[in-house]
Amino acid sequence: MTTSTAGSRPDQLSAEAQRRRTFAVISHPDAGKSTLTEALVLHAKAITEAGAIHGKAGRRSTVSDWMEMEKARGISITSTALQFPYVTKTGSTCVINLLDTPGHADFSEDTYRVLTAVDSAVMLIDAAKGLEPQTLKLFQVCRHRRIPIITVINKWDRPGRYALELIDEIQTRIGLKPTPLTWPVGIAGDFKGVLDRRTGNYIRFTRTAGGATAAPEEHIDPDRAHDAAGVDWDTAVEESELLSADDSDFDPETFRNCTSSPVLFTSAALNFGVNQLLDVLAELAPPPSGALDAEGHRREATARFSAFVFKVQAGMDSAHRDRIAYARVCSGTFERGDVLTHAATGKPFVTKYAQTVFGQQRSTLDTAWPGDVIGLANAQALRPGDTLYSEVPVVYPPIPSFSPEYFAVARGKDPSKHKQFRKGIEQLDQEGVVQVLRSDRRGEQAPVLAAVGPMQFEVASHRMASEFGAAITLESLPYTVARICDADGAEVLQRLASVEVLTRSDGVLLAVFSTKWRLENVARENPDVTLRSLVAAGDN
Ligand code: G4P
């Protein structure tokens, strides 16, 4: 299936795919993801002043403040896709597609969906804190999906841990061989610059006021580096030699196999080391290489157009109350106006309203290539995991759901609004804001909402009231674990105490249990009942 797409020459399609880098930044909240995102865009010269994209509390302007909850909490709930060109050192232009992920653990499922759409990930670590729970969890997801990782140790301008100690922690706790490409000159808290381990040069950084503009950097050859940085240079050289002796030099093959990870040191707030990260992304991160379909066959990037929806997001703009489905292009060329096929229904799908989204600004998208993200406005039929294709059919695998750990019964506050209530619940379910579970016993008016984290309930409540005009009450249920069962198993389980069987909207039967121990007991006492976990990240 390597026929080229109509309208574009095969060599052009291949070249456009080759110059794209589609990745996400994953980190524990507060490691500096938003700051780094802004710094990357600033350095690629897509914006002129840091703070223009996320604008969290205290930053200058806001581009993604569409949801009041986000503003109130100072967290980023929704994912945004940013695209910008970056001119590399050699003068070629690559196209960066940076998919933003929500930092909060309660939205892990959302992050997981975004990670189905990337070719690599930047794992951001706070130099003072090292590996944190959310970093570890997201790393597991990347490993599970075989996503190559570039590690960035951030906030080196602040007192933190020893560089070698952090490297050791990465190796021992996650089993990924760290292969530093740069090494800090100056301890954490006294960040002077980095030793470029591939050229041997000293890259000296200079602070700018408030880190608002790109930091000037000077490349000093090794002979003059000692004079420029003194003993800090000597220490950096010594430690770099120790790394080489420990076989920690960059290796492209193990990086692509996900067994090693290049490491860079940065201060996103001061814009130090950000150029180096862009260069590494351009030079080493993998370009789009097609995708495996549901049967495990690869559809090459140069085949006819195909894409899958990895996220559906509504309510971005309170003035319009619209809904955007984000699709990642896997193969071929997209031209706005193309009529595609929606694999789930077999129906034609018109793409008149394709958009690109940069922060909150949107513009019409005319053409897209493998690795790009297309925002399809008002695409009511599309759900996360859906495939779109042109001419040669393909179906990509569904996006697995996380195992919910929080359950609550939703009821409309005003019974006369039952139509709005039904519509709202259905919409939230389709978007994957929460999972919606039902049973005959509870009835249509009292669906059970299931979530990975309680903040998903807040988003659901907020949207039911403000967007659908159907305020709800939520009554927590005492369940914490869910397993998939079949109809025969459901009959047995229904009769047990502190177990309930509910039906997900895709027809899957979920047995929910009060605790892990209760689940283990039930499984032991009922060996004939098959209980399957909802595996997504390998740790559910
Ligand atoms: P997140 O998206 O991962 O949650 O992190 P975010 O970028 O919001 O950064 C969290 C805090 O860490 C912010 O401080 C930010 O300024 C700071 N920060 C990020 N990168 C660096 C860095 O390289 N060095 C230092 N020293 N600080 C960094 P804040 O006080 O919460 O907000 P703000 O008022 O500074 O924006």
Gist of the model:
Its main location: cytoplasm. The protein has 14 helices and 30 strands.
Structure description:
Its main location: cytoplasm. Belongs to the TRAFAC class translation factor GTPase superfamily. Classic translation factor GTPase family. PrfC subfamily. This is Peptide chain release factor 3. Keywords: Cytoplasm, GTP-binding, Nucleotide-binding, Protein biosynthesis. One of its GO terms (molecular function) is translation release factor activity, codon nonspecific. The structure is a single chain. The two termini are about 35 Å apart. Helix 4 (about 110-115) runs parallel beside helix 5. The chain has about 550 residues and is α+β, with helices and mostly antiparallel strands. It has 14 helices and 30 strands. The longest helix is centred in the middle third of the chain and has 15 residues, at about 230-245. The strands form six sheets. It has an eight-stranded antiparallel sheet. A seven-stranded mixed sheet has the order 2-3-1-4-5-11-6, with helices on both faces. Strands 27-24-26-25-29-30-28 form a seven-stranded antiparallel sheet. It folds into three domains: about 10-105 and about 115-130 and about 150-285, Rossmann fold (3-Layer(aba) Sandwich); about 290-390, P-loop containing nucleotide triphosphate hydrolases (Rossmann fold), CATH 3.40.50.300; about 405-525, Peptide chain release factor 3, domain III (Alpha-Beta Plaits, 2-Layer Sandwich). Bound molecules: guanosine-5',3'-tetraphosphate.
